[in-house]
Design a protein that fits this description.
- By secondary structure, the protein is α/β, with parallel strands linked by helices.
- The protein has 13 helices and nine strands.
- It binds 3-hydroxy-3-methylglutaryl-coenzyme A (HMG) and magnesium ion.
- Magnesium ion is lined by residues 15, 176, 178, 206, 239, 248.
- Residues 15, 18, 48-51, 54-55, 79, 81-82, 84-85, 100, 111-113, 140, 142, 176, 178, 206, 239-241 line the site of 3-hydroxy-3-methylglutaryl-coenzyme A.
Length: 297
């Protein structure tokens, strides 16, 4: 049965901006997050504590996190690949962190210069501390529906990696279609297998809309009982280490569909669109969200 309420996890300020050629200034990044929170989003991924040499767009995430005004009942997760990133995030006041690995070896190597096993060894160096500190932890499994280097990914591998993330201490696991190749029947298969291994409430889906299948995939995931969906304001996004990973599912397009179906999110669609227009102006390009294109102001 489709859930009556869905939590939308806004990843635009991280997954979106990390792939933009124009590096947004810190003031604009803070203002973007503030606008998204004002729009009613309860989870806004604010940045990444990764190497600025690998992803220059996320440099200064410590200052961004420090400057965002925290609202009760909201989460501001930040990506951390290793203990160094975790410590920096903690010093900047992070109360939520997100670790990331993949279901395919070649992608993981290109993305974080580590095998899947090595990424779990790195997590073991700080996740027990994060749990003791009472932090909320999200785990991303990338390339769950296909890999830009290896092609098909075995769904059994996806279940294995997601289960390992859970055992490593993740409260929530986001199942990622990093390069937007998945189709609804695959979602039914993968989520169907995952729910036999993990509580459905601990699962989120993360679709990139590269081939236009993201909303159809969300619908399939909702029908499987998923109630947490990642999206990016304006459809900003991608992954710098996944060729072809242009564009996360746009938050506006997701909200339009959910609200039209009578599913509650607590988010103001018009206010998200305003936040996207603001960022689009700063980046100097129109953003790909269909809703934004259909309803220009
Ligand atoms: P490395 O080069 O193997 O690491 O990179 P290293 O340990 O050899 O360190 C190299 C340098 O980086 C050193 O500096 C370290 O101090 C520094 P140097 O001594 O040369 O001046 N360093 C750091 N600096 C800042 N923060 C850190 C950090 N760690 C080391 N945390 C590393 C390994 C993981 C750091 C690198 O590969 C990296 O930063 N990768 C990030 C890649 C990334 O951010 N990708 C995008 C996010 S994932 C994604 O988009 C997918 C997702 O959306 C889900 C989906 O769609 O599927 C989540
Ligand atoms: Mg992504």
């Amino acid at each position: 049965m489709i859930p009556a309420r869905v939590t939308v996890v806004e990843v635009g300020p991280r997954d979106g901006l990390q792939n933009e050629a124009t590096v947004l200034g810190l003031d604009d990044r803070v203002a973007f997050c503030e606008r998204l929170l004002e729009a009613g989003l309860r989870v806004v991924e604010a940045g990444a504590f990764v190497s600025p040499r690998w992803v220059p767009q996320m440099a200064g995430s410590d200052e961004v996190l420090r400057r965002i005004r925290r609202r009760a009942g909201t989460r501001l997760p930040v990506l951390v690949p290793n203990r160094k990133g975790y410590e920096a995030a903690l010093s900047a006041g992070a109360r939520e962190v997100a670790v990331f690995t993949a279901a395919s070896e070649t992608f993981n190597r290109k993305n974080i210069n580590a095998t899947i096993d090595e990424s779990f060894q790195r997590f073991a160096e700080f996740l027990p501390d994060a749990r003791r500190e009472g932090l909320w932890v999200r785990g991303y499994a990338s390339t769950c529906f296909g890999c830009p280097y290896e092609g098909r990914v075995d769904p059994a591998r996806v279940v294995e990696v997601c289960s390992r993330l859970r055992e490593a201490g993740c409260d929530e696991i986001s199942v990622g279609d990093t390069i937007g190749v998945g189709v609804p029947s695959q979602v039914v298969d993968v989520v169907g297998r995952l729910r036999t291994a993990l509580p459905i409430e601990a699962l989120a889906v993360h679709f990139h809309d590269t081939r236009g299948t993201a909303l159809a995939n969300v619908l399939a995931a909702l029908q499987e009982g998923i109630a947490t969906v990642d999206s990016s304001a304006g459809g900003l996004g991608g992954c710098p280490y996944a060729p072809g990973a242009s564009g996360n599912l746009a938050t506006e397009d997701l909200l339009y569909m959910l609200h039209g179906m009578g599913i509650e999110t607590g988010v103001d669609l018009a206010a998200v669109a305003e936040a996207s227009r603001f960022v689009g102006q700063r980046l100097g390009r129109p953003l790909p969200s269909r809703y934004l294109q259909a309803c220009p102001v």
